[in-house]
């Protein structure tokens, strides 16, 4: 890998976290795959040699559990879901160069070879551990077959993950008060011999790796805490039948833990792609193996696009495996936030989701959803989906800005210039603005920002709308025809640039625009240099690229969703089993019920910055509502050394008459502000939408500093 700006002369591999072959895809799942597809296409536009690969994750206990419930083999169950995913992704213009699965021959062979290499290099060892066992059903209980209490935070936990609490990876034997998820029987721990990977030996390497790692900040910051706490060695085998066998001597018939073979599928899928197109077209070994290429012995540019719930696997376990076996380390990890629905988490058991097939069945085109998921907030931030917000973004940005400019420009050009307007090149100002957009596009790729890719396009379209409005070519046609033709040529040049730069986000719509421009070949083959070139094609009569989403349509969609959720909740209330969402998860998304709590920021501040905040204990001496303000209260607050007036939005949430004598926490060095004619000198701190006032546990005096 390098740290040179893209495009580099090394082969790049963009991967997406493997979807778990265990349930339908909804738009929350699609965010990662759309993001990976957008980023891969953007690298292509820059001229970077790129392979975009992924595959279905076939192994693990949830597949085995659900296959048993359906009365089929785990292989049959997982293959069915794999085939559905392989059919669904192209419907959203997510076009992998290769989409494999972890149970195929290529991944099985590579996984066993890599495990042998780990063993031969001395990084594996045997250890006696306690494994959950169901004495009534007479079977061992790996991972999702057991649940209980997290030993670290006390929350309910599954066998390999504290999914409802601290999110830590859990080793076999760590869950307290174990219980079988199959029978509901209390489990007991029995001693078994398992294989361990000595991850702790790689702590120094991993610290350096995180210093080098590019991508989103959460992928660098989160794993540092685990390293600082002390890395634990990793149990890489399980007591079950479904999975890839531990190679060579295996007297206990153990299989490899799913998270051993899952990331190796990235390599296997790349290898399958090379075997299909030939090593001259793409050399998988030059990308993945150190020393395979004399020109680039460190390997290629590996970019992982994942959900933030699997950061630990991709920044601790996986790079340690790669380093131990002389493979190239990842250059970047892009970890996405989750997608919520109207501010709440998706729930598959309550049918509270917008399903991938449902979106298409409603007649919507995939590209507007791609645009929404890619540009609605930073990649590592959570994105809230609602039909209202979706309609607003489509109507305002795709229809009102991008579509409006393209249609009015190309329609005017087609009607007034039979073969298109003629000029030697775009005018200097327009050419400079296109160059600026191309530079913004390249910067977005190097910043790993799919949102900024969209901003480059919408910004160029806004410029185009302003340009055509300012020059009014319809007024120039009769009086200054040459000037009118120059203006419209500039507009068509802008449209061509938009077609090229918009291809990663809206590939199908951009190809349609390319055809309307009469440009040769396919926009999918065009690099950003084509955006700088003037238009040369014969224009066809344009049609509008994007459709307005009407208010009535939004109301209808909301009614359908609410009715579906109500029916599912009614069924759930009648279900004595109390089944939850377990087993419906995809590893790159959070598919369980989530509260409305905002995610903790990954942007850290230093202790010195914290010390700059002067936070004090205060006591409210008087409170009075401010006339004309629905929410504001004027507070007189004793801060020990002085008494201040502070305005706070508490009127609708607290009984104003009961506020005096309340102990509060105040940010004392907040800038003064005038609200409804009252100067506010500080800020009272409160939690949540209900303004739960922060106070002290004991009787700290007014003016006491919070440290």
Automatic annotation (TrEMBL):
<dbReference type="InterPro" id="IPR004495">
    <property type="entry name" value="Met-tRNA-synth_bsu_C"/>
</dbReference>
<comment type="similarity">
    <text>Belongs to the class-I aminoacyl-tRNA synthetase family. MetG type 1 subfamily.</text>
</comment>
<dbReference type="GO" id="GO:0005524">
    <property type="term" value="F:ATP binding"/>
</dbReference>
<dbReference type="InterPro" id="IPR029038">
    <property type="entry name" value="MetRS_Zn"/>
</dbReference>
<dbReference type="GO" id="GO:0017101">
    <property type="term" value="C:aminoacyl-tRNA synthetase multienzyme complex"/>
</dbReference>
<dbReference type="InterPro" id="IPR009080">
    <property type="entry name" value="tRNAsynth_Ia_anticodon-bd"/>
</dbReference>
<dbReference type="InterPro" id="IPR015413">
    <property type="entry name" value="Methionyl/Leucyl_tRNA_Synth"/>
</dbReference>
<feature type="short sequence motif" description="'HIGH' region">
    <location>
        <begin position="19"/>
        <end position="29"/>
    </location>
</feature>
<feature type="binding site">
    <location>
        <position position="348"/>
    </location>
    <ligand>
        <name>ATP</name>
    </ligand>
</feature>
<dbReference type="InterPro" id="IPR002547">
    <property type="entry name" value="tRNA-bd_dom"/>
</dbReference>
<feature type="domain" description="TRNA-binding">
    <location>
        <begin position="609"/>
        <end position="707"/>
    </location>
</feature>
<keyword id="KW-0694">RNA-binding</keyword>
<keyword id="KW-0436">Ligase</keyword>
<feature type="binding site">
    <location>
        <position position="162"/>
    </location>
    <ligand>
        <name>Zn(2+)</name>
    </ligand>
</feature>
<feature type="compositionally biased region" description="Acidic residues">
    <location>
        <begin position="568"/>
        <end position="600"/>
    </location>
</feature>
<feature type="region of interest" description="Disordered">
    <location>
        <begin position="565"/>
        <end position="603"/>
    </location>
</feature>
<feature type="binding site">
    <location>
        <position position="153"/>
    </location>
    <ligand>
        <name>Zn(2+)</name>
    </ligand>
</feature>
<protein>
    <recommendedName>
        <fullName>Methionine--tRNA ligase</fullName>
        <ecNumber>6.1.1.10</ecNumber>
    </recommendedName>
</protein>
<dbReference type="GO" id="GO:0004825">
    <property type="term" value="F:methionine-tRNA ligase activity"/>
</dbReference>
<keyword id="KW-0820">tRNA-binding</keyword>
<dbReference type="InterPro" id="IPR001412">
    <property type="entry name" value="aa-tRNA-synth_I_CS"/>
</dbReference>
<comment type="function">
    <text>Is required not only for elongation of protein synthesis but also for the initiation of all mRNA translation through initiator tRNA(fMet) aminoacylation.</text>
</comment>
<feature type="binding site">
    <location>
        <position position="166"/>
    </location>
    <ligand>
        <name>Zn(2+)</name>
    </ligand>
</feature>
<keyword id="KW-0963">Cytoplasm</keyword>
<keyword id="KW-0862">Zinc</keyword>
<feature type="binding site">
    <location>
        <position position="150"/>
    </location>
    <ligand>
        <name>Zn(2+)</name>
    </ligand>
</feature>
<keyword id="KW-0547">Nucleotide-binding</keyword>
<dbReference type="InterPro" id="IPR012340">
    <property type="entry name" value="NA-bd_OB-fold"/>
</dbReference>
<dbReference type="GO" id="GO:0046872">
    <property type="term" value="F:metal ion binding"/>
</dbReference>
<dbReference type="Pfam" id="PF09334">
    <property type="entry name" value="tRNA-synt_1g"/>
</dbReference>
<dbReference type="GO" id="GO:0000049">
    <property type="term" value="F:tRNA binding"/>
</dbReference>
<dbReference type="InterPro" id="IPR014758">
    <property type="entry name" value="Met-tRNA_synth"/>
</dbReference>
<dbReference type="GO" id="GO:0006431">
    <property type="term" value="P:methionyl-tRNA aminoacylation"/>
</dbReference>
<keyword id="KW-0479">Metal-binding</keyword>
<dbReference type="Pfam" id="PF01588">
    <property type="entry name" value="tRNA_bind"/>
</dbReference>
<keyword id="KW-0648">Protein biosynthesis</keyword>
<keyword id="KW-0067">ATP-binding</keyword>
<keyword id="KW-0030">Aminoacyl-tRNA synthetase</keyword>
<dbReference type="InterPro" id="IPR014729">
    <property type="entry name" value="Rossmann-like_a/b/a_fold"/>
</dbReference>
<feature type="region of interest" description="Disordered">
    <location>
        <begin position="524"/>
        <end position="543"/>
    </location>
</feature>
<comment type="subunit">
    <text>Homodimer.</text>
</comment>
<dbReference type="InterPro" id="IPR023458">
    <property type="entry name" value="Met-tRNA_ligase_1"/>
</dbReference>
């Amino acid at each position: 890998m390098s740290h040179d700006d893209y495009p580099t002369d090394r082969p790049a591999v963009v991967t997406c976290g493997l979807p778990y072959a265990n349930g339908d895809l909804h738009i929350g799942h699609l965010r990662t795959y759309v993001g990976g597809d957008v980023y891969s296409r953007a690298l292509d536009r820059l001229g970077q040699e790129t392979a975009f690969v992924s595959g279905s994750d076939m192994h693990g206990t949830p597949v085995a559990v659900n296959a048993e419930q359906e009365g089929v083999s785990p292989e049959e169950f997982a293959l069915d879901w794999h085939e559905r995913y392989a059919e669904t992704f192209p419907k959203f213009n997510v076009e992998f160069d290769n989409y494999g699965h972890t149970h195929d021959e290529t991944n099985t062979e590579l996984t066993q070879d890599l495990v042998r290499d780990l063993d031969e290099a001395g990084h594996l060892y045997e250890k006696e551990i306690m494994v959950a066992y169901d004495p009534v059903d007479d079977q061992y209980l790996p991972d999702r077959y057991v649940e209980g209490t997290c030993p670290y935070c006390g929350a309910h936990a599954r066998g390999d993950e504290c999914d409802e609490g601290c999110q830590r990876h859990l080793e076999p034997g760590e869950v307290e008060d174990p219980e079988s998820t199959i029978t509901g029987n209390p489990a007991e721990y029995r001693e078994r011999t398992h294989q361990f990977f000595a991850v702790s030996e790689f702590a120094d390497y991993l610290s350096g790796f995180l210093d080098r790692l590019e991508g989103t900040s959460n992928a660098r910051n989160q794993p540092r805490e685990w390293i600082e706490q002390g890395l634990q060695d990793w149990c890489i085998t399980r007591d079950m039948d479904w999975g890839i066998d531990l190679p060579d001597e295996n007297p206990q018939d153990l299989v490899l833990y799913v998270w051993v073979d899952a990331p190796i599928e990235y390599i296997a899928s790349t290898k399958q792609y090379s075997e299909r197109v030939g090593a001259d077209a793409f050399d998988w070994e030059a990308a993945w193996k150190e020393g395979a290429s004399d020109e680039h012995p460190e390997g290629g540019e590996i970019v992982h696009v994942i959900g933030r719930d699997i950061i630990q696997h991709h920044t601790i376990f996986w790079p340690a495996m790669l380093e131990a076996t002389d493979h190239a380390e990842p250059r970047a990890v892009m970890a996405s936030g989750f997608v919520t629905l109207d501010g709440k988490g998706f729930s598959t058991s309550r049918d509270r989701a917008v399903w991938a097939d449902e979106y298409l069945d409603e007649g919507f085109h995939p590209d507007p959803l791609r645009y929404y998921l890619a540009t609605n907030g930073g990649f590592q931030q959570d994105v809230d989906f609602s039909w209202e917000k979706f309609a607003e973004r489509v109507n305002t940005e795709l229809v009102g800005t991008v579509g409006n400019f393209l249609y009015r420009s190309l329609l005017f050009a087609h009607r007034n210039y039979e073969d298109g307007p003629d000029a030697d090149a775009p005018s200097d100002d327009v050419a400079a603005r296109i160059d600026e957009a191309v530079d913004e596009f390249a910067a977005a790729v190097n910043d790993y920002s799919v949102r900024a890719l969209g901003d480059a396009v919408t910004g160029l379209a806004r410029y185009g709308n302003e340009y055509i409005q300012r020059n009014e070519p319809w007024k120039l046609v009769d009086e200054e025809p040459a000037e009118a033709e120059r203006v419209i040529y500039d507009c068509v040049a802008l449209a061509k640039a938009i077609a090229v730069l918009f291809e990663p986000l809206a590939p199908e719509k951009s190809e349609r625009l390319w055809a309307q421009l009469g440009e040769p070949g396919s926009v999918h083959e065009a690099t950003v240099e084509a955006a700088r070139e003037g238009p040369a094609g014969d224009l066809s009569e344009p049609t509008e690229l994007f459709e307005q989403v009407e208010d009535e349509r939004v109301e209808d969609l909301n009614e359908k969703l609410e009715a579906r959720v109500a029916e599912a909740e009614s069924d759930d209330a009648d279900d004595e089993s109390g089944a939850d969402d377990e087993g419906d998860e995809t590893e790159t998304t959070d598919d369980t019920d989530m509260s409305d709590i905002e995610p903790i920021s990954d942007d850290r501040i230093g202790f010195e910055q914290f010390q700059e905040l002067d936070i004090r204990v205060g006591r409210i001496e008087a409170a009075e509502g401010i006339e004309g303000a629905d929410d504001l209260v004027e507070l007189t607050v004793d801060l020990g050394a002085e008494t201040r007036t502070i305005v706070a939005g508490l009127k609708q949430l607290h009984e104003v008459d009961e506020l005096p004598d309340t102990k509060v926490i105040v940010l004392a060095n907040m800038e003064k502000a005038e609200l409804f004619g009252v100067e506010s000198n500080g800020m009272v701190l409160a939690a949540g939408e209900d303004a739960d006032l922060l106070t002290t546990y004991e009787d700290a005096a007014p003016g006491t500093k919070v440290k």
